[in-house]
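Notes from the 1:1 (GR / supervisor)

We went over the backlog. Supervisor wanted to see one worked example end to end before approving the batch request, so GR pasted a single chain during the call. The sequence is below; no edits were made to it. Supervisor asked that the structure be written out right there so they could see what the output format looks like.
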Amino acid sequence: QVQLQESEGGSVQAGGSLRISCATSGFRNNSACMAWIRQAPGKQYEGVATIRNGVSTTYADSVKGRFTISQDVAKNTLYLQMDSLMPDDTAMYYCAAHDRWPYACGLTERYSYWGQGTQVTVSS
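Structure output shown during the call:
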């Protein structure tokens, strides 16, 4: 049974940094596509970043150059380092994953597994 559990988010001022993590368990192998997805109040879900095999990454244009997704396979943990945060980054952030062959890993994949979400608030 796959489980995803995000760390606690937080509140920061614009221009600040925050790192959130996601502890994973239950995957049969390391081929899963892992993603961070966010939902701001009153808006649709937005794919933020994806990673597969700890190397291949994809970022939304809105966060490119500011956010970094990474994965510690040995620790079964996914990270999202967020720098130069802006008020528009305020959202609930979800860790998500899928393990369907051929393991496509785009921002708009249909993710099968989701964490409960963690709130990130950026004040101006």
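Supervisor's comment: The mean pLDDT is 96.
Batch request approved.
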